[in-house]
Specification:
CATH class: Mainly Alpha
Number of strands: 0
Number of helices: 4
CATH architecture: Orthogonal Bundle
Order of helices and strands: HHHH
Oligomer: single chain
Structural class: mainly alpha
Distance between the termini: 68 Å
Shape: rod-shaped
Number of domains: 1
Amino acid sequence: MPILRVKEIRSMSHEDRMKRLSEFRTELLRLKTMVKAGGTVENPARIKELRKTVARILTIDNEPALEPKKKPKPETEKTKAKTKTAKEKKKK
């Protein structure tokens, strides 16, 4: 079961996401240090869940930068001709 669902992450503000991200990274660092030191971790699956949650937060936070920017289509001769004829029809 994920720590945070995608729907919950998307509903957060950027500041809230960054706050939770730092909390999760701190906890992950603490758990990894315990494992490296030879200690036992209460819930080893928590490390995997924390890693995935951190990745989810970073991905969702980076989505606006990845969206392609829409460029207006340049007018061609055909579209110019069509707009002129439509305007001329209205005048008549």
